[in-house]
Amino acid sequence: MKLYHGCSVENLRSILVNGLCPRLEKKSNWTKAPSRSDMVYLTVAYPFYFALSHKGTVAVVEIDTKGLSRKRFYPDEDFIALALSRQDVKELDAVHGQSRDSLETYQHGWKLSLGYLGNCCYQGTIPPSGVTRYCLFDPKARPELAAEMRDDPLVNLTNYATMGESYRRLVAWMFGDRKVLPMVADTKQQLESMQRSTIGADFIEAAEKRLALWKKESRDRTGIHVFQPSLALA
């Protein structure tokens, strides 16, 4: 299984030498609902969204789980909190801390966390040998693509059920494993639905322009570079 982690280029340099390490004493990126300091967070769907919280060129590392202990995988506490609160915003804040602190209780649910939210976590350091590839992305070179990935994708159970496949295909395209961006198929479907309805011509024209844009973007690899870990950064 391949999982992904978004980071800054500065962190990538350390990952290639020392492995993917938990944050330990460093501050969490999420002040309202801080993450576990002993965990590395992994995803199949959102690595570029998380990476783009950093400035400048960002990186996403691909992890092969084959050599990693299954006993160290845990569900993302967000998955547990969302499930326990039934995605009720008022209850979510109340149960998030509880879910994070008692994560060991739910260790068996890490595959459910991946399947229903697209995220999980790993306790301890993932060694450099676990990194199979990494992708460098310059958002300034690809503003439309960056905006598509940077806009909050609503990391919750409902949105992942609807958009998860599209998010996973986008990650695959970024790593060169797919020829066409998933937004092409998504926009085609929207356009066909519009054409069957009584929606105005202006909306159809806008959808046609979006379709042309994503077709063009699919043929362009500017600002995107994929490397094997042996080709370490200079």
Question: What descriptive keywords fit this protein?
Answer:
alpha+beta, 234 residues, four-stranded antiparallel β-sheet
Question: Could you provide a short overview of the structure?
Answer:
The protein is of the alpha+beta class and about 230 residues long. The protein has one domain (about 1-180, about 220-234). It contains 9 helices and 7 strands, in the order E-H-E-H-E-E-H-H-H-E-E-H-H-H-H-E.
Q: Over the alpha carbons, how many angstroms does the gyration radius reach? A: 19 Å
Give the helix tally. 9
Number of E-type strands: 7
How many domain regions? 1
What fraction, in percent, of the residue positions are helical? Answer: 40-55%
Write down the overall mean pLDDT: 90
Strand order of the largest sheet: 1-3-6-7
Task: Please explain how this structure is put together.
- By secondary structure, this protein is α+β, with helices and mostly antiparallel strands.
- It has one domain (1-179, 221-234).
- It contains 9 helices and 7 strands; from the N terminus they run E-H-E-H-E-E-H-H-H-E-E-H-H-H-H-E.
- It has helices at residues 9-18, 47-51, 77-85, 89-101, 110-117, 143-150, 157-174, 182-196, 201-218, and strands spanning 2-8, 39-43, 58-64, 73-75, 119-123, 131-137, 224-227.
- It has a 4-stranded antiparallel β-sheet with strand order 1-3-6-7. A 3-stranded antiparallel β-sheet has the order 2-5-4.
- It starts with a strand and ends in a 7-residue tail after the last strand.
